[in-house]
């Protein structure tokens, strides 16, 4: 089926911060990825988990520059794909007394590759994210073995 509409892989991340963290650089880095068409942002939801374990969504218009305020430029980034049950599930992962940004995004850089694969009759058979620390540790082990003593 040539010329299918293609999209890059869709991922989410949950970024947890202390209430008083300075997240300006984080928001700036995300904005840079969006501007360079590396990612396409679908949703950015802010969650606060209280010391007693209760949680709530936070409107980005209600935050100050401290804490999660570095993400205020993304106010209104709501596609409707994140639901209350998603927020409940990720809030369970958060530590009490923290705030988090739940970000749903498309790896937009991959869309041309996905389109080419589909046009060639290919399909994705498997995919898995390998945590960066695991890869870095493996590279360090390989480099240590390759270094002459």
TrEMBL record:
Cited InterPro entries: DUF6325 (IPR046288)
Stated name of the protein: DUF1269 domain-containing protein
Native source species: Pseudonocardia halophobica
